[in-house]
UniProtKB/TrEMBL annotation, chain B:
This is cyclin-dependent kinase. It comes from the Eukaryota. Residues 307-323 have a biased composition (Gly residues). Its EC number is 2.7.11.22. It catalyses: L-seryl-[protein] + ATP = O-phospho-L-seryl-[protein] + ADP + H(+); L-threonyl-[protein] + ATP = O-phospho-L-threonyl-[protein] + ADP + H(+).
């Protein structure tokens, strides 16, 4: 169970200074828009669940540690694009071009250079920690505990 | 629809710009150059510590390079004295390019795309893994070419020359005709590496594992133009990935036809031996890590659980992996960094 303990302590570390995501009204609506878009694009490109979890994780961490420029309504969307793009690069085999990523009635479309700038801002703001503990991190442990072995079991889980 | 320009971002005014600037380092000399960018020996001004500074080139269409993201991800998971440790990522002014900063030993770019191909793919990773195994086994670089032609030649000498029979589509790769060997060359991989008497330190300590390593090497070099799903399964171990100091499992059934010579780069000529810090020295097997054990910093539990075979749609079903007719641009040989694992 060392693995479990290590996972939990890593998770706890990440949550130090935890701020309530829902504390500000402007965040709530921006976050909802961003996440809705991320979910749609996830389905469209067939990204896996971890990619989506990572993108949301990056987004939340980013907007909470970065002074959101409220006078710029496109900021949330740009952050969502950058976070999803980074998550896909971390996790997916095939990653679409930045322009191809911006589908599903994106409210704004950003040129590649802008997204790249935002990617860098996200990376540095998150201090390059791109592999946080996610719910999926615990799956290995759970499946071993439950003795799930066959592919069918795995499919159920995912 | 609205287009927002890069100028509106004001990245530099951000109070939360979390990375240090590359100005914290003084470049001493260039160690190597690849298509990914350049690697410098540098000194941290504040501490005087000698590090390797890798400058990453940006790709405007795809944003921050996926190869760099993967490299950072992998390096953060690997904790082994023979694998370079990623210390920090810093940014340069203007945020145009971004620099990873590994430290304390010399990186060996295992593999760059050759022959003018530009498509990075799982097949290229397979080749890289094979090269790493071979080098572990061999105790030194297996394709120490100074430049691309020399390197290709070394690959052909060992793996046999590629032709339309063993590699359908190879003649359509941009530079194939410039580099194809003039005489037929037979594959003599097994003869060359199969009976290693003089094993390197890593293998000697685990002699029992040798057979496995040989098999793994041969297998990985024989991977067919696989579908991405399969490739993924290969590269992502299931539960409990044995990342700490052990070999990644590369399993492939027999009977695949052999893979693609995507040559590795690097070689003694590209990395001048430099003994000043005990780190930049190829010959120094096992002696280059005088700085003590690696702290377990940044170490997290593995979470590579998402890569189960068949766990959802992935990839495009093995269309072009640089195998048959890869998607290469017409602008010439843009090489792509594949893996940058350091072995001493």
């Amino acid at each position: 169970d060392d693995e479990l303990i290590s996972l939990m302590s890593k998770e706890k570390q990440a949550h130090v200074g935890n701020i309530d995501v829902c504390s500000e009204v402007s965040f709530v609506s921006a976050r909802k828009r961003a996440l809705d878009w991320i979910f749609k694009v996830k389905a469209r490109h067939g990204f896996n669940s971890l990619t989506m979890l990572l993108a949301v994780n990056y987004f939340d961490r980013f907007v909470l540690s970065f002074k959101f420029q409220k006078d710029k309504p496109w900021m949330g969307q740009l952050a969502a694009v950058a976070c999803l793009s980074l998550a896909a690069k971390v996790e997916e085999t095939q990653v679409p071009l930045l322009l191809d990523l911006q589908v599903e009635e994106a409210q704004y479309v950003f040129d590649s250079k802008t997204v790249q700038g935002m990617e860098l801002l996200v990376l540095s703001t998150l201090q390059w920690r791109m592999n946080p503990v996610t719910p999926i991190s615990f799956f290995d442990h759970i499946t071993r505990r439950l003795g799930l072995k066959t592919n069918l079991h795995w499919e159920l889980l995912y | 629809m609205a287009i927002a320009g890069a100028g509106q971002l004001n990245l530099h005014e951000s109070p939360c710009w979390g990375s240090r600037s590359v100005d914290c380092f003084e470049k001493l000399e260039q160690i190597s150059e690849g298509t990914y960018g350049q690697v410098y020996m540098a000194r941290e001004i504040k501490t005087g510590e000698i590090v390797a500074l890798k400058k990453i080139r940006m790709d405007n269409e795809r944003g921050f390079p996926i190869t760099a993201i993967r490299e950072i991800k992998i390096l953060k998971k690997l904790h082994h004295e023979n694998v370079i440790k990623l210390k920090e990522s810093v940014t340069s002014q203007g945020a145009k390019d971004e620099q990873g900063r590994p430290g304390k030993c010399c990186p060996i770019p295992i593999n760059n795309l050759l022959l003018g191909a530009t498509k990075y793919s799982p097949a290229v990773d397979m080749w890289s893994v094979g090269c790493i195994f071979a080098e572990l086994l061999h105790g030194k670089l297996i394709f120490p070419g100074k430049d691309e032609p020399e390197q290709l030649n070394k690959i052909f000498e060992l793996c046999g020359a590629p032709d339309e029979v063993n590699w359908p589509g190879v003649s359509k790769i941009p530079w194939y005709n410039n580099f194809k060997p003039t005489r037929p060359m037979k594959r003599r991989l097994r003869e060359a590496l199969g009976n290693q008497e003089k094993a390197p330190a890593t293998a000697t300590t685990r002699r029992k594992g040798q057979t496995t390593e040989i098999t793994a090497f041969t297998a990985s070099c024989r991977l067919p133009p696989i579908q991405s799903g399969q490739a993924h399964a290969q590269m992502r171990p299931g539960p409990n990935p044995p990342l700490h100091g052990s070999q990644p499992p590369v399993a492939a059934g027999p009977g695949h036809h052999h893979g693609k010579p995507r040559g590795p780069a690097g070689g003694p000529g590209r990395y001048p031996a430099n003994g000043t810090n005990g780190g930049f020295n190829h010959q120094n097997h096992g002696g280059g890590y005088s700085s003590g054990p690696y702290p377990p910093q940044g170490r997290g539990a593995p979470y590579g659980s998402s890569g189960m075979p068949g766990a959802g749609p992935r990839g495009s079903g093995g269309s072009g992996y640089g195998v048959g007719a890869p998607n290469y641009s017409q602008d010439g040989p843009t090489e792509v960094l594949v893996l940058d694992v350091a072995l001493t």
